[in-house]
Amino acid sequence: MSDFHFDRRQVRRNFGRAAGTYEKHDALQREVQSTLVDRLDIYEQAPEVVLDVGAGTGRGSAALKKRYPKAQVIAIDLALPMLRQAKHHAGWLKPFGRVVADAYTLPVPDHSVDVLFSNLCFQWCEDLPRLFAECARVLKPGGLLTFSTFGPDTLTELRAAWAAADQQAHVARFLDMHDVGDAMLAQGLKDPVLFAERYTLTYPTPRALLDELKGLGANNADADRPRGLTGKQHYRRMIDAYEAMRVDGVIPSTWEVVAAHAWGPPAGQSRREGSGEIASFPIENLRGSRRKTPF
């Protein structure tokens, strides 16, 4: 589906290194998280198990535990240092679990999760069929998947500034909302709803934006990224190109945020795999139809 791939080890390293600085730069992440938590009103039941995938420093996990105090809330992240930081948000009155794991391979049984929540993590998972197949696997029938992710118009100014300097991949690429929706449907998730919002953040200099990206762990992890140091001339051309975009004395940066939700498929719901479809059923549903054949 995508023509690019992320280096998963680099993603882990980037976020691990940023664990101590993340909360100094996460104003947008907190704003999107707050909106995503408010939209949980569409889930009217009392969940037993809630996953926060890509939990980072655990602000979202703490908010989920506050909202669902009787639920088992589990913070999952690829980077162990992030989960160590998350301990500061896991109060003794409302603790939540912390598990190092990948969004592609969630360490929970099939059909065991009531709410799967993820704030600005899925943009690092370009294999959408694999990602949403895993979501469909762990959700209970009728369980809620709700997430936010970055769309392709994120960091357009920075991408354009680098394009004026050279033709290499310096800025992470993200998938279109329509591709995300198609992948959700293909994996059997029910009634997906998606919408996009744009945020414009401003900075005193292009360097301030680059420092923020590094502080968040959102450095470029594209598998095709340049491996060597960027030459001073290329860097200077990029800075000059970005400075030309200055408006009212500040440097603008666009962030396209895609928010979505869908529901866990019922048992036996088919999903597409390759050119065919597969359906799964609990084994107990099959036992009653077995017949012995006389010889």
TrEMBL record:
It catalyses: malonyl-[ACP] + S-adenosyl-L-methionine = malonyl-[ACP] methyl ester + S-adenosyl-L-homocysteine. One of its GO terms (molecular function) is malonyl-CoA methyltransferase activity. Pathway: Cofactor biosynthesis; biotin biosynthesis. Its EC number is 2.1.1.197. SUPFAM superfamilies: S-adenosyl-L-methionine-dependent methyltransferases. It comes from the Bacteria. The keyword Transferase applies. It is an enzyme of class 2 (transferase). Residues 265-295 are annotated as: Disordered. InterPro entries: BioC (IPR011814), Malonyl-ACP_OMT (IPR050602), Methyltransf_11 (IPR013216), SAM-dependent_MTases_sf (IPR029063). GO terms for biological process: biotin biosynthetic process; methylation. The keyword Methyltransferase applies. Residues 51-146 form the Methyltransferase type domain. Keywords: Biotin biosynthesis, Methyltransferase, S-adenosyl-L-methionine, Transferase. Belongs to the methyltransferase superfamily. PANTHER family: ARGININE-HYDROXYLASE NDUFAF5, MITOCHONDRIAL (PTHR13090). Converts the free carboxyl group of a malonyl-thioester to its methyl ester by transfer of a methyl group from S-adenosyl-L-methionine (SAM). It allows to synthesize pimeloyl-ACP via the fatty acid synthetic pathway. This is Malonyl-[acyl-carrier protein] O-methyltransferase. It comes from Luteibacter yeojuensis. The gene is bioC.
